[in-house]
Amino acid sequence: MKTSKCNLSIAGLIALVAITLALPRQLPGQTGAAKSSGGNGTSATRWSVQVGQVDPGNLDLAYSFQIAIYENLVEEFKKTKQFPQVFRDGDLKTSEVPNLLVLKTTVEKYTPGSENRRAVTTVSGATKLTVRSQLLTREGKVVLERTVNGDVRFFGSNLRATQNLARNIAKTIKQSQVSGSGQPTAILTGQL
Amino acid sequence: MNRFVVPPMPRQARRPQLRAVSRFLAVLICCGLAAPAQQITQRGNTSASFSTRATHLLGFANARNNSTGTLSVQGDSLQFQQNGKPGEKVKIALVRDVFLGAESKQVGGLPMTLGKTAAPFGGGRVVSLFAHKQYDTLTLEYVDADEGIHGAIFQLTKGQGELVRNELIARGVTISSHQDQPTKESAAGARHENK
After folding, report:
1. pTM for this prediction
2. With an 8 Å Cβ cutoff, are B153 and A155 in contact?
């Protein structure tokens, strides 16, 4: 009984040592694979983003809403730190940036709400916005395209819908594996 | 019947008094005419400052969002100064466009909202029916040193937005033909779709 207990403890110890040794070996293996798949022989490039002005399409969206979406997008992209540099529309410095993605936002649907109505009824008066967000390369190649919603249903001013929308756009782009480093062509294979 | 009769003043003696009165009247009239003229010149003088209370909603230089302060036009720049803090300035020459809108908002902010929510028997809703105020929204579009486009939104008391806009126009800001539409109430359940 005593020998079997001793054998068991030895076996457990060996297993523990084996696991400890195997784990660090596996991690370099993983990173190596990631390097080879992500790099494909090319060095990782840093991508910057330029936020374009909001296109209202055919809708009579108040200019304050367009400006609010634009400003909130710039803020949210800076907050996420996904891209090393965030440029505004018309920025002359973008000409010096080699790898630039341009964010184009087009409003597709807009339901004007009312803060008073929300306060009185709670269930009605929501302000809703639906936009199509596209990330394009300088050459106009679409890297990512998503339809994103933003709304304010209960409390807050109508402009809060633009803040929620900008946050959702930044979050969606972050989840789509579009990052400041890597190749944007690889992203094309993702969901469009 | 002992009456005391004041003898009429001789014509020669009355003249200096009349002259003094007429001079006083002339001065008064001149002052009266000069005052509006001076007012006009003050308005025409572009270096004179103009200021109003405003709430900065977003976007103006480094000013904090949703902060209340004084929006003023001083010399060649537009300034927003929060209470007791140094003002943020943007040169008027860099302002590209100004849009004016209107919006009806609930008054009282967060404390009032919490109070209304806590009120029993739907009393908060009844309060909400009356606790709203019409505001002007002033939207500015300006560029920075690198030509990057910025936007700023201010909320002003009704009627003040028009004054700020006129002041900016007087100082050379061009305004595009399209103007900001007031946020439409969804009473009709209007839904806009861009297909």
Report:
1. 0.71
2. no
